[in-house]
Design a protein that fits this description.
The protein is mostly helical. The protein has five helices and no strands. Helices cover 89% and strands 0% of the residues.
Amino acid sequence: MNRKTLCGVLLVSGTVLLTLGMLGDRALSDAMGGMLVGAGSGLLAMGGSRFWSLRYDAKHPQQARQSEIEQRDERNVAIRRRAQAAAGEALQWAVMAAAWISVGLGAPLWLTLTAVGVFVAKSVLELALMVRYQREM
């Protein structure tokens, strides 16, 4: 499936879901209608964004080629990966802070345990990926 076809599929499916969510108020619960509207809006925005991006690249091929070269450059890849690692670390500690806050506010136990579970899952995944990458390198 080429990129333009994928954009069309995203636009059409987003429009269908958005329409179902907005017009199906009697047949659907409020939660289901809200989920359909949210998913439809997201797909519609993603398809439209990708369509306009492809159109811009078609009109400016030299700039698109330069952008692709910069995106695959080793230095830029290393910078992007370092930023993603730092963001993951910050998010991990933010989840733990949310768990502590939920304990302090007397939130339900499932909420606190979910936050702790996310923290532990991220830590285990990090360790597993470190072992994998050490074997590969």
